[in-house]
Write a structure and sequence with these properties.
Elements (H helix, E strand, L loop, with lengths): L2 H6 L3 E3 L1 H9 L3 E7 L4 H13 L3 E5 L2 H7 L8 E5 L1
Parallel strand pairs: 2-3
Antiparallel strand pairs: 1-4, 2-4
Helix pairs in contact: 2-3
Length: 82
């Protein structure tokens, strides 16, 4: 899956809080993480996704991830939901 898959996904989360909650509910199909996001923000989300064997993809920048989500600001984390 690529950022284009995230762009056209009917159900997704944008941001750390929403994505973490979706992971806790085990609704995440694919996790997207920006490489330039701060480690203390993304590490707990990556850890939770890894524990659930969720496939993780990386975007080069927060701006690219934000654009893929359809927002005009950067995003550290996003996910495609079931």
């Amino acid at each position: 899956m690529s950022l284009e898959d995230l762009r056209v996904a009917p159900r997704k989360t944008i941001g750390t809080k929403q994505t973490r909650k979706a992971l806790e509910r085990e609704e995440v199909v694919r996790l997207f993480v920006a490489r330039d996001a701060e480690d203390h923000i993304i590490d707990p989300v990556i850890e939770l996704g890894s524990q659930q064997d969720v496939e993780i993809s990386f975007a080069d920048t927060m701006i690219k991830l934000g654009k893929a989500c359809g927002i005009s600001v950067g995003a550290a984390v996003a996910a495609i939901l079931r």
